[in-house]
Amino acid sequence: MPAAGVATLILVLVAVAALAAALVQVARLLKHVNFTLGTVIAGVRAIELATRPINPVLGDIANDLVATQRALDDLLASKTAQAVKTPARNNSARSAPSPEPADGTGPLLVSRLPRRGGR
Length: 119
Hints:
mainly alpha
């Protein structure tokens, strides 16, 4: 093979190697871009999930509150019916305060504190 043919083959091999190296670099760059886009997509989905409308959730909460209100109304009705059936005892010791002893030994009141200046 003449020298010109060998030189042409070497130049073609060098050109193919340079193109292959450039394609490998582009492939690495595209792999990095693919990873970054995947991360962005995951973030956008998380934001979508965090900012979804709350109207369906509010309906569930309202239903739970209605059930709770009914249960509390039933409890109040049963307690009221129970209180009507059993009249309250009249405990005079609790309803009226006991009179204080005349000797001043009862509870300390503000009027019994010594006054300033000896008055």
